[in-house]
Amino acid sequence: MSCGEPHETDCSEVLDHLYEFLDSEMPDVDRVKFRQHFDECSPCLEKYGLEQAVKKLVKRCCGHDDVPSDLRAKVLGRLDLIRSGQTVPEHDVTAAQVAPAAQVAPES
């Protein structure tokens, strides 16, 4: 997404790190750059507002449940794969591989 206007901070960089901004997980210097970008770029500001609303809704509906640490690790691992551009497997790659059941010969 891009509004077509030149910015000090590129739209793609802002959108790639949007959740870091929303979660206050970036240095203050970068947060200032992002705030400036949102002031200049209405498409990114709209995306920011949408993602902020989704986070609030999820927190309101699910914010009272603790996330199991293994689930959190799996989700973060998949996000890392997606961010790095790698293919994300459809099955759970962290689960132990189960040997297929022995085939039983039909009775005569």
Characterise the protein shown here.
It holds the Pfam family zf-HC2. This is Mycothiol system anti-sigma-R factor. It comes from Streptomyces hyaluromycini. Residues 11-44 form the Putative zinc-finger domain. This protein is mainly alpha-helical and 108 residues long. 56% of the residues lie in helices and 0% in strands. Helix 3 (28-40) packs across helix 4. The N and C termini lie far apart (65 Å). 6% of the residues are buried.
Q: Helicity range of the residues?
A: 55-70%
Rg calc: 21 Å
| Structural class computed from helices and strand pairing | mainly alpha
Shape from CA axes?
Answer: globular
Largest sheet properties = none
Number of helices: 5
The residue ranges in which pLDDT falls below 50 over 5 or more consecutive positions are: 96-106
Kindly report the average pLDDT value. 80
How much strand content do the residues show?
Answer: under 5%
Strand and helix order? HHHHH
N-to-C CA distance: 65 Å
Q: Report the count of strand segments.
A: 0
Protein name: Mycothiol system anti-sigma-R factor
Domain Putative zinc-finger: 11-44
